[in-house]
Each structure stands twice: as C-alpha cells, then as structure tokens.
C-alpha cells in the first residue's frame, strides 16, 4: 500500500527539484526525506529516483507516480472536506495568505464578516507574495490565500491549486501619459522575484525598452510617495491608487468581468499630487486553495466573506 505522506514528498520533489528544498518545505531533515522516498520506492517495487552524485531526478516511473499522486491527494482533500461538512459549521484555525494590498483593503471587512457569521473560526493571516502561495498551500502552511495575476505574467498557481476569481482592477502609470513616454525615466518597482516586479519589467519590454530601475519598494503607498517626490515613475493598481487624482489615458480598458468599475475617488491620498494615467492593463485577484478542498466549510465561508467584502471596495 502506497503511503499518501510519502506520495506528498515525491510530488514536492517533482516541483522543487532537490531533496534539500523538500526538506525545508516540510520541516524534515534531508536524510529523513531521503529515507521516506527510499521507503516509497520499496512500496512501489520499481525505481522512482535516479541519483547521480548529489543530483536526484525522477525516473519515468517516478513521473508516472507523481501524476497519480496528485489525484490521490486531491481525493483525500475531498474526503477531508466532506468529513468537515458532516461535523457541522466551520470551526478551528483558518490560515489565510494575502498580498499586502488585499491584506490592507479586503481582509479587515472580510474577517469581520467571517468571524461574525462563524464565531468558531480562528482566522490567522500571513502576508505572502502570490509567487509563493502554491508551495505554501501544498505544504499545509495555508488553507486559503488571496493571489493576483497581471497581464504579461502567466498564472503562478500550479495544477495542485484551484482558484475562484473575485475582481479585476485597472493599472495606472504615474506622471506620464504612456509607458512608452517613460522610456528615459528612472523606475520604481517592487522587489525582484515578485509578480509586480515581473509585470512592470515586461510591460516596459512590450513598449520596446528595458526600464532603468532605481528603487525596489513593495509598499504601494511608499511607491506613490516616491513618485510624488519626483524619484521615479511606477505602475500601480487601482486599489493602491484609490484617493489619487486620475488622468485617463486615451484607451481606458473595459471593466473586469467580475466587478464593474465605479466612480474614481477624487480626494488626494497619502502621496497627493501624483498624476495617474489609466492603462489598458489589469490586475485580477483570486481566492486560491488546494484542489479538492473547495467544498470544505471553512473555505466556503472564507470565499463567501471575500466576495461580500469586494462589494465595499472602491472599484
């Protein structure tokens, strides 16, 4: 009989590439991971790993078993969700991941609604970049997360993760009428490795140039303060730009399919004086959770609270 816990380790090895990375993700020692994988090979009766020095790769049988492991682990998630539903209403810890803008704007009203409707739930929030969410969900560090996707950047969730779309928002450029017009400017981007940074770089590349990045800042309020002080140009999403005066570009995009755009706030925000041009680019926010776990009462309650909170956003 194949052990699901060992199948989980094999799946992580297929995704992370090294035993050391798997060990770090599951808080085992590398030797413990190696022992578990060796035991899985004995259970399977065929070689699953090919070891060359310190390098470990999956054999064809190993790749085949990973495909089946995903289905097995997904079915176990469904079983866990069904048992939770049989026990009654959602209760206990609920680990929520969120990128900073969502944590600041969406989560406070969502958590108020969630705990008001389900006082037995214990939400615990951790800020996380969407690029790291899939691994955190697979490792069981999170139960549900808010992630975003940008134009020019492929989705970051993998085949083990399900998502539900929540809303879409446009992107703005500070103090320039178009990205092409900012070719010679210094840029303010998020830190390398984040989706926001990748989106900014690729948007500039699509306009025909490589941006000269002067500052790496993740907090959009700080980004807007730097832009207001003349220290560079930046791309910012609508929720970060809410409260700024907006100068619409010549080709504003249509509203996203999930939430129509409403009136734009006109009062100055924390970095007042920044002129913002709406671009034909968007950021989409989604709820993410492990495949098979979408019917878990706590996940259903969380996504319902997220959707309710979206109706109060300044979109």
UniProtKB/TrEMBL annotation:
It holds the Pfam family HTH_1. Keywords: DNA-binding, Transcription, Transcription regulation. Residues 250-263 have a biased composition (Pro residues). Residues 2-59 form the HTH lysR-type domain. Residues 245-271 are annotated as: Disordered. CDD domains: HTH_ARSR, PBP2_LTTR_like_6. The keyword Magnesium does not apply. Coiled coil: none annotated. Belongs to the LysR transcriptional regulatory family. This is LysR family transcriptional regulator.
């Amino acid at each position: 009989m194949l052990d699901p816990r060992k199948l989980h380790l094999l799946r992580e090895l297929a995704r992370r590439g090294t035993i050391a990375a798997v060990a770090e993700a599951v808080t085992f020692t590398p030797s413990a991971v190696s022992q578990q994988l060796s035991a899985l090979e004995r259970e399977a009766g065929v070689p699953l790993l090919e070891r060359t020095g310190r390098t470990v790769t999956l054999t064809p049988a190993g790749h085949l078993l990973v495909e089946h492991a995903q289905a097995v682990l997904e079915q176990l998630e469904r079983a866990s969700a069904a048992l939770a539903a049989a026990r009654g209403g959602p209760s206990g810890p609920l680990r929520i991941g969120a990128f900073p803008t969502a944590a600041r704007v969406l989560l406070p009203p969502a958590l108020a609604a969630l705990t008001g409707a389900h006082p037995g739930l214990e939400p615990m929030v951790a800020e996380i970049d969407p690029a790291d969410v899939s691994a955190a969900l697979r490792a069981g560090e999170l139960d549900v997360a808010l992630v975003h996707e940008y134009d020019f950047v492929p989705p970051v969730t993998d085949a083990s993760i399900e998502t539900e779309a929540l809303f879409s928002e446009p992107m703005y450029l500070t103090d320039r009428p178009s990205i092409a017009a900012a070719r010679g400017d210094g840029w303010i981007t998020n830190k390398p490795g984040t989706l926001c940074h990748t989106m900014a770089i690729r948007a500039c590349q699509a306009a025909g140039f490589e941006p000269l990045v002067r500052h790496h800042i993740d907090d959009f309020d700080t980004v807007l303060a730097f832009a207001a002080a003349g220290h560079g140009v930046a791309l910012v999403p609508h929720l970060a730009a809410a409260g700024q005066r907006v100068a619409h570009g010549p080709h504003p995009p249509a509203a996203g399919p999930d939430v129509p755009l409403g009136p734009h706030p006109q009062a100055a925000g924390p970095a007042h004086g920044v002129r913002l041009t709406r671009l034909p680019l968007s950021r989409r926010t989604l709820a993410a959770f492990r495949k098979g776990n979408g019917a878990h009462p706590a996940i259903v309650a969380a996504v319902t609270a997220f959707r309710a909170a979206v109706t109060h956003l300044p979109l």
